[in-house]
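ok, trying the design again with the full structure, not the truncated one.
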């Protein structure tokens, strides 16, 4: 099956989530090929899972003070801090028939492309069910998935740099969220590319493109004008609204 691949590009949090939904709609109607896209978050942002309560998860005062966007994802999972320079995010979208029916197996198949990319730049990574990728026992990538009206969306982050102190200042982890003990604990469980190998962000981007291209026919392309227009509508109608973001 042919896939469209869209190279790395920055958007704000609301547009990033809206583009996923706009592309899902476009694939469903047959107007777009199954799609793999890479993107960043500008400004930095926090995304929360679809079943989370925003006020429970995010330090709203600090986020506003720092100019950090907050958005609810269509997928589950926990709150994630997306640093503008600290990660590369991907989305893969296509008809559910292109992927294994079993959820864990589908995660494994898709995440194998990220594992390949990390090994390409010298990181001994492996898939760890349900939806993580680890290196030397530490998490380097988290992923989330949803299936809606016949279309699968999986998106995830590959950590390039990690600022634990800033992450904990934005997320409501606990009263002792910025304690040295907790920060050291997280640093033992989470790692990033720049701490493991001397690869640049561009090296990582290239390796990810190669990884996701291995077993697919790839056509490099851009977002369609219709997708961009629809995404802008979804930003206003949904992803930027209090109704969506504060729904729980």
């Amino acid at each position: 099956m042919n896939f469209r691949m869209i190279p790395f590009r920055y958007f704000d949090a609301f547009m990033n989530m809206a583009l996923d939904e706009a592309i899902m709609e476009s694939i469903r109607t047959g107007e777009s090929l199954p799609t793999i896209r890479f993107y960043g978050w500008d400004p930095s942002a926090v995304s929360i899972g679809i079943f989370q309560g925003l006020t429970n998860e995010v330090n709203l005062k600090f986020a506003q003070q720092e100019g950090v966007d907050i958005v609810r994802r269509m997928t589950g999972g926990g709150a994630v801090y997306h640093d503008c320079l600290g990660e590369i995010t991907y989305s893969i979208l296509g008809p559910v028939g292109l992927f294994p029916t079993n959820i864990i197996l589908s995660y494994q198949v898709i995440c194998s492309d990220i594992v390949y990319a990390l090994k390409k730049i010298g990181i001994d990574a492996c898939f760890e069910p349900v939806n993580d990728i680890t290196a030397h026992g530490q998490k380097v990538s988290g992923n989330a998935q949803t299936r809606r009206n016949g279309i699968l969306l999986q998106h995830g982050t590959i950590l390039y740099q990690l600022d634990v102190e800033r992450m904990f200042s934005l997320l409501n982890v606990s009263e002792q969220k910025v304690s040295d003990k907790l920060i050291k604990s997280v640093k033992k469980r989470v790692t990033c590319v720049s701490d493991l190998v001397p690869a640049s962000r561009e090296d990582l981007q290239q390796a990810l493109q190669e990884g996701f291209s291995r077993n697919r026919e790839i056509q490099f392309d851009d977002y369609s004008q219709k997708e961009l227009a629809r995404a802008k509508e979804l930003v206003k109608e949904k992803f930027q609204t209090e109704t969506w973001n504060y729904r729980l």
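Keeping the full-length input from now on. DSSP finds ten helices and eleven strands in the chain.
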